[in-house]
Amino acid sequence: MLNTVIIGTQWGDEGKGKIVDLLSEHADYVVRFQGGNNAGHTMVVNGKTFISHLIPSGIIQGKKCFIGNGVVVDPFVLLEEIDYLSSNEIDVSPDMLKISDRAHMIMPYHKAIDKAREEKKGDKKIGTTGRGIGPCYEDKATRRGIRFCDLMNVDRLKEKIKTILEEKNFYLEHYFNTTPIHCDQVISQVMAIRDRLLPYIADVSIALHTGHQNGKTLLFEGAQGTHLDVEHGTYPFVTSSSTVAGNAAAGSGIGPKYLKEIIGIVKAYTTRVGEGPFPTELFDGTGDILQKTGAEFGATTGRKRRCGWLDMVMIKNAARLNSLTGLVITKLDVLDDLDEIKICVGYQDNGNTLYEFPSDINTLTHCTPVYETHPGWKQRISDITRYEDLPENAKKYLDRMEALSGVPIKIVSVGPGRESTIIKESIL
C-alpha cells in the first residue's frame, strides 16, 4: 500500500473510522493530523463497537499510532481513552502511541470559554461541541498556547499558565459574567497527569520521516469533513482546523511529496450535525428513514444528525480541493428500502443554476437543489461481497457518482462490520 490519506468529503460522519480500520491492516503507521476530541471514529470489530476521539483507529489493529502537531489534545480525555482501550486489551503503551511535542494542549480554561461563548450567542450559536477546540486553536494562532513540550519544564509551564489565566479570567468574569478559574487548580490538575504523559511525547515529524526512509507505510486519518474546513468549508459553520488532504503534511510534519494516495469517503446520502446550511436536507418521512436506518447520531456528542440526499456539488468540490485519487462509498445499504433516490447535481439561486459550491454562506442558505431521480433497488445488499453482484440500480447509482465526481470508486461499504465491504478496485 502507498502512503494514503483518508479524507471526509461532506460534513464529517462519513464512516472514515471503518475505512481507516480496514486499511490499517496494510499500513505500518497510522497518523492523526488535525482536529481534537470534537471528532469520533466508530469501528465495529467482531461485533464489538469501539469509539475513538483522539487516538488513531489503527490502534485497534495493533499498529503504531501518532498524534501530529496539527491536533489539539485534551490530555485528560486522552488518558481516559488510553484507559478505555487498555481495559479492552488493546495495547496503548508508549511503544504504540506517540504524541507530537509540538501539539497544543486543550486546557480547562479553553473549555470554559467555549461553553460560555456558545451560551452567550444563544440562537446565533455555531453548534460547537464545547470541548475547547476553537479556543485552543485561537491560542495557537496568537502564540500563547501550551504545547506538550512545555511539560518538560515545570517552572516554565507554571509561569505560562499563570500569565495566560490573567487574561482568560478577565474575559470570563467581565465579558461572560461567569466564574474565574484558579491558577493553582489548573497547575495541580496538569501536574497530576504529567508523569503519565511524558513517555508518550516525541518529535513525530522525525519519527515519520525516519519510518518512511526505512520503508514503513503511512496511513493518515482525517477528522471531520472537507466542508467543515476552516478555509474551504461553510464558514463560519466550520471546525477550527484545516480538514483537507493538504494539511496531512503540515499537521504531521511529513513532506507533501510522500502523500501518494488520497481517498475521499462519501456517505451514500448526506448528513450534518449542528448548525449551518444544508441544501439537500429532508424534513419528511424519507429523512426520518435515513436517520433511523442509518443510526445517525454523532459519535462524539450523541446529537441526532440532519439527513438529506446525496449532494454531488459538494463531492465534486471535495474531489478538487483534495486531489482525490479514489472514493469509498459508505452506508449504501441504508438506501435499500427506498423506491427512488435523488442526487443533487446543481443549485438554483435566483434563477441561476450553480454547479460549483459557493463560498458565500448567504448564497448557499438560499440555494435550492437541482435533482436527478434514480430508481431504488429494493433489496437487501449487506451480505453482498462482490461488486458485480450488486443490484443493477445500485450499480447505476454508483456509476453516476463516478461520472459526476470524475473520481473512481474503489471500495463500497454495505454495513458497519469489516466483512460488509466490497473491494471494487484495490488500493493496497
CATH fold assignment of the largest domain = Adenylosuccinate Synthetase, Chain A, domain 1
Radius of gyration, Cα only, in angstroms? 22 Å
Low-confidence segments, given as residue ranges, are none
Tell me, rounded to a whole number, the average pLDDT. 93
Q: How many angstroms does the end-to-end distance come to? A: 4 Å
Strands of the widest sheet, in order across it, are 9-7-5-2-10-1-11-15-19-20
Q: What form results from the Cα inertia axes?
A: globular
Number of strands: 20
**Structural class based on helices, strands and sheet pairing:** alpha/beta
Helix percentage: 25-40%
Q: What percent of residues are in strands?
A: 15-25%
What is the CATH C-level name of the largest domain?
A: Alpha Beta
Number of helices: 12
* CATH architecture classification of the largest domain: 3-Layer(aba) Sandwich
Task: Kindly report the name of the CATH homologous superfamily of the largest domain.
Answer: Adenylosuccinate Synthetase, subunit A, domain 1
The biggest sheet amounts to: 10 strands, mixed
Count of domain modules: 3
Function: Plays an important role in the de novo pathway of purine nucleotide biosynthesis. Catalyzes the first committed step in the biosynthesis of AMP from IMP.
GO molecular function: adenylosuccinate synthase activity; GTP binding; magnesium ion binding
Family: Belongs to the adenylosuccinate synthetase family.
Keywords: Cytoplasm, GTP-binding, Ligase, Magnesium, Metal-binding, Nucleotide-binding, Purine biosynthesis
